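G., before I forget:
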Amino acid sequence: DTAVSQTPKYLVTQMGNDKSIKCEQNLGHDTMYWYKQDSKKFLKIMFSYNNKELIINETVPNRFSPKSPDKAHLNLHINSLELGDSAVYFCASSQAGTSSPLHFGNGTRLTVT
Amino acid sequence: GNSVTQMEGPVTLSEEAFLTINCTYTATGYPSLFWYVQYPGEGLQLLLKATKADDKGSNKVFEATYRKETTSFHLEKGSVQVSDSAVYFCALYEGTSYGKLTFGQGTILTVHP
């Protein structure tokens, strides 16, 4: 069984469009995250949610809006897509507030043309 | 703030060579340290972790020792295989923000037969 699953795996869209990426975890974790990985493999946290509550919001443009309908799901909606949004977006989960390891999904490669 | 610095890649080795990937960190407190690996097309997976000074993190083939005096957590493996080709990330967690990991920039490893 996949522990952290995100869809779609690939997303190609034009500038100005709005798109969503979905993430689900079946590990029973309290905390979920979105990370962005650029073309040089650098990883940067975007958001984290703990029990559906936003905990971390790392200077991300407000075109990016996370939504957590329950603690097993964390979706990412992006409005008015820009070329610079092209990247791989990773969802992850972990137990809250500890040094427990993060479990990552396989990523969504977003290409904005 | 916290930061993690890894040796520049890419690193290219022949099969059965000894691997070292250097990692040093800056943190105000006493962080937990991690190594993650990312295989092509996949998310990150935990390789090993260490939570206090002088701890040796290990997964039986990879190991890293938490050295507080040199603020380092170098990854080592005695004999690499082609299947070890991946991107390796060093990361720290300081416990002040829910699960927020600070990642190094990643080191690309390619192993040739």
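The CA atoms of residues 32 and 96 of chain A lie 9 Å apart. Chain A has a mean pLDDT of 92.

More on Monday.
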